[in-house]
Structures are given as C-alpha cells and as structure tokens.
Amino acid sequence: REKSYHTSPVVGKFFLGSRGLSSHVSERSCNENVLKEKFRELEKTLSAKLTEDITMEEEVDQESNPEPRRLDDPLSESENDLYLSYREPLRRKASLELLRTIMDSPACYIPSIVKRFVEAEEDLSHLEASKIVFILWKHHMYYKALQMSEWLQTTKQFEPTENDYASHLDLIAKVQGVDVAEKYMENVPDSFRGELLYRILLVNCVRAGNRGKSEAVFEKMRTLGFPITIYTLNQMIILYKKCDRRKIPGILSFMNKENLTPSHLTYRILINTRGETGDIIGMEKLIEDMKSHDLQPDIYFLTDLVRWYISEGLKDKAIAIFKEIGEGNSHECIRARNKLLSLYASLDMANDVSRIWNHCKSYPTMLECEAAIGAWGKLGQVEEAEAVFEMAMQKFKGLSSRLFSELLRVYALNNQISKGKEFIERMRHFRCWSGPLVWDGLVRFYVEAGDVGKAASILSKAAERQSGGAVKPLFNSYMVVMEQYANCGDVYNTEKWFHRMKQCGYTGRLRPFQILIQAYLKAKTPAYGLRERMKAENVSPNKEFSIQLSKIDALKREMLLKMSST
C-alpha cells in the first residue's frame, strides 16, 4: 500500500538526532585448432534434433561454473530492475545450446562463436540475445556477458535500447572499473542518457566504495532534474554506511522532505547499521517502526536479526527467531537455507545443520554447498565439509571458486595446514583455481599458517595480473595482509600494502587508515600527515579513530620533548 512517509519518532531518534552513528575488452590469442573444434561441436549442436520436454535452462543453471547471484544483495536492487524484461526463460533450443556453449568456452572464443551461430541460424532475436546476457550476469560471468553485450552493441541487426546501453555500462563498470564506464557513458547518445544509466553508474560507484564519484553522480542526477527515488537514496545510505555514518541522518531528512516511502531495503540497511554498533534496542525499535508502516520482515531480515543476536551473545532471542522462521513461508525458508546453515553452526547446533543439509543434499544449489562446507567447518567436522565438496565436484560440471575458497578456510580454521597444502596442490590445475575468491582463500590460508610472506606474494602476483586488465583482488585480501604487518608494528610493509591497495583502486575507506594507524601505535612511532591523507580521500574519522589519532598526537609530543631535552 502506497502512502506518504514522514520520519517516524524511532527513525528520528535513532538516526536523525543520533551522534552515535558516527568498451572493448582486450582479446587474448586462442589456439586455432581448439577454436575450430568448438565450432564443429557448435555445428553438431545446432543440427541436432532435441526432443527433451524439460527446459534446458535449468540444466545450464545447475552446470554453470559460478554461483547464482545472491537474492538478498542490497546493491542489486537497481540492477535487478535493469533486467526485469529478460527474466523469462529462453524459448528456442538453439539459443539454449548457444548459452551452454558460451558458458563452457573461454571468453576469448565468444565473439567468433556468436558470429558463427548467427551465420548458421540467421535467427537470434534481440530478446534472446539480451536474455543470454542476463543469465551470464546472474551467474557472475561478467567478462562473458560483456563480450555478448559488445556483440549486441556492434551488430547492425538491432536498434540499441536504453536497457542495452545501461546493461553494457553495468558490465563495463564490473569488468573494467567505473572510470572506463564513465568514459563509455560520455559516448552514449543524449536521448538514452537518462535516469536509468546514471542510477546504474551510481550503484557501481557505491559498490566500488568510491565516495567522491558516488556523490558526484548523485549531484549530477539532481542537477539534471532526474527524480530522486528511494532506490537512489538507498544507494547513498549504503555508501555512507561504509564510509561516513554521520551522513545517514541527512539522507533520511531528505527522504522525509521529499515524502518518500522507505522500502524494505531502507529499513534493512538501517537495522544492520544498528546491529554493527551493538545497539540491539535501537535495532528492535526500528523493526517495530517498520511494522507500523505495513512492512513485514522477510526471511532475510530475520536471518540478519539472528546474526546480530548471536554476535551479542543473545542465544535465546536468536532461537526465538529461528522458531518464527520455521513457522513462516516454506518457500522463503528454502531460499534462505544457505544462511540458516551458517547461523545454526554459529550457535553450535549440529543437529539442525544436519537436518537442513539433509533437506538440501538431494538437489543442492552451489550456494547451499558453500554454506554447508562453511557450517561443518565451524563445527569442527572437517570430514563432513570435505564430503560436501566432493559431492559438489561430482554433481556440478564446473565448481564455483567460492567452494575452493570455503574449504581452504575450513582447513585454516581447524588448523589442518598440511591438509590444506595437499588440497592446494590437488586443485591448482582446475579451471576455477583463479580469481579474487581463490586468491582471498589462499591469502587467508597462508596467513593462518603463519606464512605472511607467502600470502603477500600471492596477493602481489594477483595485483600484477589486474594491472594487465584482469579482475582485481578483493579489498579484504589487502586488509588481511595489512593487519598482519600492523599487528607486528611493521610500519614499512603496512604502508607498502596501503599504497598497493590504492593503486588497485580501493580508496575513500576508513578501514585501511584504522589498520595503518594501528601499525604506528604498535611501533610507538609518530605518524605525520594522517589527517591530510584522509582529507584527500574524503574519509572522515569515527569516534574510535579519533581516540587513536589523539594517541598519535601524544607520541608526537613525547618525541618533541625527548628531542628538546637532548
């Protein structure tokens, strides 16, 4: 039910008045003989008469290498809108076979595969091609989706639509970064450069944690007179939740002024912000306020609540929510089984983990396998985690890099370093044994094994690959390495990795500065110019960081006194 919204007393009290909330992708050379073999396979596929009654897209979903997109990803709200018209399944069997071939082939083959397909079929509609882009996007195959999208952009068979441009912009931002996406947007015809494109650019700027660009895009949207929707404001709340929570009240005031109704996502972000600060009372009052606006918590809200109750040691409240989930919509529970596995494991409830996994394991998804591996690892049952991994190896044609990374974490968590090293040797030749998640798993594993030098070496090589146009390492991988050096008071290496992180494009975040200042404090060495460096990146200190800055100032004064007395 739609109605105007004015900031409620709860939202006002806990946020407005609170001070506690402080393109062209580079081509790689391909083996010509292998490419010809792919074409022969494709031709056989196109000429085969397929008589199965089942939808092959379901098969493709199960066999595909990366895991499906998480349904509760808050940053996907606007992106999901972008692909709404392409969610119907592929209808033509030849198109399904094309999709399967693209999924099974290296990305560098895709332009030639599509060209050969069109020459053979002469009937690939704009809608079917766009659906293929969506399915690749859904499975995080962004590089392949971008290749397919580029074909759509360059072919003269179809007139490009606003959605085509927006989808292409989204994929460029994900594969090549927001700087390249901005340049692409400059070349989009004025008639298509509307609110949708700016909103998609904003989402990707927020995802990258780039505060400066995010704020610039938001202001540009206002200057151009585009309607500022709840979707756009949600993105700004997500941004400030990451980098400057003191700005959240201003967004809520703007929402109130514009009479905008908060969405489920708005409340979810605010509730998680409260949960992160340990403010359980404030979190529960926001839930009450949400219900007063005729918005009921869904399964993702409830699992978030359980997570925060567990983090604060409120086991009874967590179990009460579990009971509420059990009495709710069974379809929603099925969608959230991966979250439930992890949460039950956090409460050391092995019987419930076993119960849910028994429901899953006949027809598990990749996400459920990942969650089960992690859950058994938390419970110390490494053999069970290994059994899930081996089952996934048999069931899925290609494995998600998340599964490799998750099992590595299990070995590290349970101090089974030798087993982990054997696993690394076994898996290093697999097709998915690469990419940000695997690098992150390796970095964390070697850190846990006490070999920080090896972890840093892996991250360094991954960063070198990124400079050649590949996907960059995860932000958290840099944080793990920096933390290790900071804990030892190694200022030189902490600064070195801080610099490398910035070279990779991760700027405008408070966490790296928190780790950096910890290194100086541990070494009892004054740090000069930290405030200026933060200002240059548009980063504001929170209360905890301000205390650390005052300790650094005390070190400076102590150093000056020593110098003056000598």
Describe this structure in words.
- Helix content is 69%, strand content 0%.
- With 566 residues, the protein is mainly α.
- It is globular.
- The longest helix is centred in the C-terminal third of the chain and has 23 residues.
- It has a domain of 85 residues.
- Helix 2 packs antiparallel against helix 5.
- InterPro entries: PPR_rpt, TPR-like_helical_dom_sf.
- Keywords: Repeat.
For this entry, give a set of tags.
566 residues, mainly alpha, 32 helices, 69% helix, disordered N terminus, mRNA binding, TPR-like_helical_dom_sf, PPR_rpt
Work out the number of β strands: 0
What amount of the residues lies in strands?
Answer: under 5%
Alpha plus pi helix count: 32
End-to-end C-alpha gap: 75 Å
Structural class based on helices, strands and sheet pairing: mainly alpha
Helix content, binned percent? 55-70%
Family: Belongs to the PPR family. P subfamily.
Pfam families: PPR, PPR_3
InterPro entries: PPR_rpt, TPR-like_helical_dom_sf
Biased composition (Acidic residues): 54-64
What are the SSEs and their pairings?
Blueprint: H1 9-16, H2 32-47, H3 56-63, H4 77-82, H5 93-104, H6 110-121, H7 126-138, H8 142-154, H9 162-176, H10 178-186, H11 195-207, H12 211-223, H13 230-243, H14 248-257, H15 264-276, H16 280-292, H17 299-311, H18 315-326, H19 330-335, H20 337-346, H21 350-360, H22 366-378, H23 382-395, H24 401-413, H25 417-427, H26 436-448, H27 452-467, H28 475-487, H29 491-503, H30 510-523, H31 530-536, H32 543-565
Family: Belongs to the PPR family. P subfamily.
Biased composition (Acidic residues): 54-64
Region (Disordered): 53-76
